[in-house]
Amino acid sequence: MSTDPRPSPLPLTERQEARRRGILDASTRLACGGGFDAVQMREVAESSGVALGTLYRYFPSKIHLLVATMDDQLQQLHAALRKRPPAATAPSERVAETLLRAYRALQREPLLADAMVRAMIFADRSVSGQVDAVSRLTTTIILDAMGPDAAGGTAGAGRTSAVRVIEHTWHAALVTWLSGRATVDQVTEDIRTACRLLDQPTPA
After folding, report:
1. What is the pLDDT along the chain (204 residues), one digit of tens a residue?
2. Would you tell me the crossing angle of helices 128-146 and 91-108 to the nearest 10 degrees?
3. Residue 173: CB atoms within 10 Å
4. Which bin fits 31, alpha (ψ -120 to 50), beta or left (φ > 0)?
5. pTM of the model
6. How far is CA 190 from CA 28, 54, 100, 173, in A?
7. 100-108 CB contacts, 8 Å cutoff, 24+ apart
8. Please, which residues have CB within 8 angstroms of residue 65's CB and are 6 or more apart in sequence?
């Protein structure tokens, strides 16, 4: 049972959703062009054509905005993966193919990747709901890649733990790559190694 006393947010109207979409697109453009420091709330408001006060009603801070941008990028990835799912047979290979496809997309926009990952690292308790949403979506992407049985919730405790380790490895690999402490080949191998946990037999 949830103990969060805050009411659930009301669904956005079509106009509000379009405004939110414009804000996220502006955040993405600015981050792609200049990274974390380029995403300034005033510039985002001007680029998206909304008043600064309106922007803050949607996103209380730059960190909220960039975490939401990461969630949005993952949503787009998830939609693309559902249209063109991984072709491998083994669950471990399908998950590795999925995460490496996402990694290649981030490589094409390293400044955007750095801005989003830095926001996740800097996020405090006020952004916990949005960070949790990113984590849940990452887990869903991994489960979908594993196959219908896993996505349907039939994975055992051992398999669930493996998914958590894969998710942690994925995020850690991004941080080490963005900080220059790991090469592309090292990140690729780390992701493949973590995904092989799915090949281990789970307890009956």
Report:
1. 334 444 445 677 889 999 999 999 999 999 999 999 999 999 999 999 999 999 999 999 999 999 999 999 999 999 999 999 998 989 999 999 999 999 999 999 999 999 999 999 999 999 999 999 999 999 999 999 998 655 444 455 668 889 999 999 999 999 999 999 999 999 999 999 999 999 887 655
2. 130
3. 20
4. alpha
5. 0.87
6. 28, 42, 11, 7
7. 100/188, 100/191, 100/192, 101/77, 102/77, 102/141, 103/173, 103/174, 103/187, 103/188, 103/191, 105/77, 106/174, 107/184
8. 23, 24, 27, 39, 41, 44, 59, 119
Judged by DSSP in three states, 13 sits in coil
Instruction: Answer left, alpha or beta for residue 137, where phi above 0 means left and psi between -120 and 50 means alpha.
Output: alpha
CB 30 within 8 A of CB 12: no
> Which residues are CB-contacts of 41 (< 8 A; sequence separation ≥ 6)?
52, 55, 56, 61, 62, 65
